[in-house]
Amino acid sequence: MKKEKISSMLYCIASVLYFLAAIFSFAGGNHNSMAFVWICLSFTFLCLGFGYKKKAKESEDDSNKK
After folding, report:
1. Residue 3 in contact with residue 58, Cβ under 8 Å?
2. Which residue has the higher pLDDT, 31 or 21?
3. Cys staple from 42: which of 8, 18, 21, 59, with CB 3.0 to 4.6 Å?
4. What is the C-alpha separation between 38 and 10, in angstroms, rounded?
5. Which residues lie below 8 Å from residue 32, measured CB to CB, with a gap of 6+?
6. Is there a contact between 11 and 52 (Cβ–Cβ < 8 Å)?
7. Taking the model in full, what pTM does it have?
8. Rounded-to-integer distance, Cα 19 and Cα 13, Å
9. Could you give the 3-state DSSP secondary structure of residue 1?
10. Torsion angle in degrees (nearest 10) through CA of 7, 9, 12, 16
């Protein structure tokens, strides 16, 4: 349960860092294709983070019902 919460938080932090990398890459101007890769990675990590968060909440709810 606690492991999933930590994992979800780490995925969300990684997502924010990839978003920042994409912003800096767009601001640089000459590597827009790499910026799109960073954005795709950030959305992937964001989805993974929220998936782990949902899994942790469901397992917490299941443990409270027992």
Report:
1. no
2. 21
3. 18
4. 17
5. 25, 26
6. yes
7. 0.79
8. 10
9. coil
10. -130
What count of other Cβ atoms lies within 10 Å of the Cβ of residue 25?
19
Tell me the one-letter amino acid at 5.
Answer: K
Pairwise CA distance, residues 25 & 42, whole Å:
13
Q: Residue 47 corresponds to which tokens in the numbers above?
A: 């989805």
What sign has the CA pseudo-torsion 10, 21, 43, 40? negative
Positive or negative, the CA dihedral 41, 45, 51, 54 is: negative
CA-based nearest residue to 5, from 60, 46, 52, 66: 52
Residue pair 8/56 in contact by the 8 Å Cβ criterion: yes
